[in-house]
Design a protein that fits this description.
The protein is built from 4 helices and 11 strands, in the order ααβββββββββββαα. The chain is low in regular secondary structure. The chain has a single domain, classed as Ribonuclease Inhibitor (Leucine-rich repeat, LRR (right-handed beta-alpha superhelix), Alpha-Beta Horseshoe), CATH 3.80.10. It has an 11-stranded mixed sheet with strand order 1-2-3-4-5-6-7-8-9-10-11, with no helix packed on it. The longest helix is centred in the N-terminal third of the chain and has 16 residues. It starts with 10 loop residues before the first helix and ends with a helix. Keywords: Leucine-rich repeat, Repeat. It comes from Perca flavescens.
Length: 299
């Protein structure tokens, strides 16, 4: 999650916290105070570049220690690669969080109280079992990076249109049939990843994303590209491979920053050759992107 990571919990320490939770649930008098239980967790936090960080990744947690939510000073929390099925409403108590990493759990939902994380700038919730995104997430208007990849999401709530600071959005490997309308209001987007969904079209509103530099929609069922896509003159990487494209818009030559035909997934340029393109486009592409642009330009 960046920066110096805190030392992992030992099995003994995790058991101690777990025991304290069970005792608290049973209401026994001999339980340690909440502050002392929380203090055992606090000892594993680090401060790096001024941020208070706690790394609980890969601890085989199937629930979070209740004392965790007392550490309100936390700014970066890594709960990735555990076995969490849910998060409690108490998540909202960590209102100083800037980065929250939930990657690789079994989460089927995010609690509405996530709306209380007003300072949150980065949220990784990829590789979970999310089928929907709470409307309350739209209150996290400071978000700059949002990854919801590898879930079971079919759409996004309209409230996310308020995320004007969002620059990177990853919705790849979901079940999205139409680009959510709220995405077109995210004017700050520089990176938009929608690969391996169920898209068949891209709406004309794509032209509203004027700052977009990277657009990845490979592995869908898109059969045509809108002319308005060609007005995104900041595009440096456009990946439309493995779709159902037979032709391209005549205005494609306006995307001058693409520079070349690209093959490697991370290369800048235009990724398009893996489509059932018709002649003469298919033949013209053998001469590279410049040949295609020369062909498309009006004489």
């Amino acid at each position: 999650m960046g920066g110096k990571q805190s030392r992992g919990f030992s099995n003994k320490e995790l058991n101690e916290v777990s025991v304290s939770q069970r005792r608290k649930s049973a209401g026994r008098d001999e339980q340690p105070s909440l502050s002392s239980a929380a203090e055992r967790i606090r000892r594993h936090t680090t401060v790096h570049f001024g941020y208070s960080i706690l790394n609980l990744a890969m601890q085989a947690l199937d629930e979070t220690p209740s004392e965790l939510w007392e550490l309100r000073e936390l700014q970066k929390l890594n709960l990735s690669m555990n076995c969490l099925c849910s998060l409690p409403p108490a998540l909202g108590a960590l209102n100083n969080l800037v980065i929250l990493n939930l990657w690789g759990n079994n989460l089927s939902s995010l609690p509405p109280e996530i709306s209380l994380l007003k300072k949150l700038r980065v949220l990784f919730a990829c590789r979970n079992r999310l089928s929907e995104v709470p409307e309350e997430l739209g209150s996290c208007t400071c978000l700059e990076v949002l990854s919801l990849a590898n879930n079971q999401i079919t759409g996004l709530p309209g409230s996310l249109a308020a995320m004007h600071n969002l620059t990177k959005l990853n919705l790849s490997h979901n079940r999205i049939a139409h680009i959510p309308t709220c995405v077109y209001s995210m004017k700050g987007l520089v990176f938009l990843h929608l690969a391996c969904n169920r898209l068949e079209t891209i709406a004309d509103q794509i032209q509203d994303l004027v700052n977009l530099k990277i657009l990845i929609v490979e592995g869908n069922s898109i059969h045509t590209l809108p002319k308005t896509l060609c007005f995104l003159e900041s595009l440096e990487l456009l990946n439309v491979d493995f779709n159902d494209l037979q032709n391209v818009p005549m205005e494609l030559y306006l995307l001058s920053r693409l520079g070349r035909l690209a093959c490697h997934p991370l290369d800048k340029g235009l990724h398009i050759i893996h489509n059932p393109l018709l002649k003469p486009i298919q033949e013209v592409l053998q001469g590279g992107l410049s040949a295609l642009y020369n062909y498309l330009k009006p004489t």
